[in-house]
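User: Hey, quick favor. My workstation is busy. Could you predict this chain's structure for me?
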Amino acid sequence: MKIIHTADWHLGHKLHDNSQLKEQNLFLDWLKKTIYEQEVDVLLVSGDIFDTSNPPIEAQNAYYDFLVDITKDDSPCKKIIITGGNHDSPGVLNAPAQFLKRFSVEVVGKATEDIEKEVLSFEINGQKLIVAAVPYLRDKDIRKHTLNERFEDIGGRYKQALIRHYQAVAAVCEKHKTPNTPVIAMGHLFAVGGKTTDSEQTIYVGNLGDIGAEDFPALFDYIALGHLHRPQTIGDQEKVRYSGSPYKLSFSEIGHKNSIELLHISESGAIQRENIICPTFRNLIRIQGDTEYCIQELERLNAEHEDNLNTWVELVLEEPKPNINPLRRAALNLQHMDVLKISQPKRESVESLRALAEQAVQITDLKPEEVFDKLCTDFKVTDANRKKIDDLFYEALNLANEQ
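Assistant: No problem, here it is.
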């Protein structure tokens, strides 16, 4: 059996207000071709299918067109499992779930009340596979709120709720497991030790909910994670793996290769992982130097351009007071490159930084409830009103953390 693990498509994403649907469609075409050529049996997509909870119609069309193409009668792919991420709207993903199930597409947009619905057990060509299709676990879906709960208690309670959820799905998987049957878990979360980029949306406040590779039940033979955009393993456990996003979503991601994971399942149930590098559908580059150097590099790279899509450029000007008018004129004459961002490194003197630091209120050193308590004191909140306001504050804090 062959399985592809991918995640973080972020269909509909815009980089500095520029749509990435062209390269996203190119990726979906390439993925479809790879599934056919490699004769892939199962596709796992671990969250963040879309970039926003209300994706544009073009992004939804790309998603459904892809599903139509890989569920045709001649497709080798017999099962597709899609879980929701923190960017996804559970309602948007789940709305067509019953319809898609007719085409062997399983969608789990959010945590279910009946946890057994997150465990999928099926056979393909006589070989059995069990998948724990765990979506992004929102605080409100898995953790019971406690009256007057302190902020420092939230992280521990939520982390334990995450661990309990995976333990519960593992227990269900155990009931379905037979000899030589691999068990794969999916997830969309931040695991301790993962390397981030600028384009991931923060899921947790501080270390809220951070779990390590050792926190996953040993029953799982492979854990297909989404959320972090760099392909990477967590800790020293090769089986805990982020596939990463299949294309670059910010200039901070320049320098690493985008990929998907191809899993080979032997008859004995052993899993061998193969990392497949995705083609570069659109180049993102950063040019750093003075104005004259940046203009020369833009003109040189524009003349050498051979790609289908325009290259997107970030310029970092290393001059105290650059004259960017010549740079803007040069950018307008480019046929194959688009300058999306122009910035300067911050050059603050040690003295000015020290002066600012001496005057600054160190609010980052305060816990949210300490700030709240100070405000209550400043506004002279009475003891009679304090309990009601406390309850509202902690409810709001929990909601802010979830978002």
